[in-house]
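Sanity check

After download, print the first record. It should look like this:
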Amino acid sequence: MSVARDASTHRRGVAVLALQGDFEAHRRALSEIGVESFEAKRPRDLDEGDGLILPGGESTTLWKFFEMEPWEEAIAAFAASGRPILGTCAGAIVLAREVTNPRQKGMGLIDIGIERNAYGRQVDSFIGEVDAPALGPATPMPAVFIRAPRIRRVAAFVEVLGTHAGEPVLVRQNAVVAATFHPELTPDRRLHRLVFARQPARRSA
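Expected structure tokens:
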């Protein structure tokens, strides 16, 4: 099934994939910086997005949803359009070219190798600091790592925007950004601003 985009489609703001995971927290974060958003529940919804967030959750569960409808084709077309995409935790895994532990499919929209659950189990989740000068002030960014993956390989043309303990945790290739942590679970909105601040502002009531 093809996913064709109608040039006359009305754009509604940032599409937040709402199949599972913490999509509501991302919508709150976008609201706090004055950016419109909506829940994307069908592949055709992406036509109405100025940007796209693939939230945290469980990457294997996401792929089960993707097998039921043409999500993969819709997301690939979205990326090809040059509109910004942010994938966090499980979303970063879905975007990666190579996925291990165990090996599974990745969309290859950002040329990295990523290892699932690389810090351990749920009890090993932690709050750390990300050094990310690209996000503005030199103050480290607080970051929540929940059953987080680790980036094991970064292609030469992929930009490392942030590190934790010397390892890349925030990377960008063209308009696609992947974070191994959950920026939506802290008050720091620098990452959402970096990716989406140029999207249409929220209308006044």
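If your output differs, re-run the checksum step. Summary of this record's structure: Confidence is low (pLDDT under 50) at residues 1-8, 200-205.
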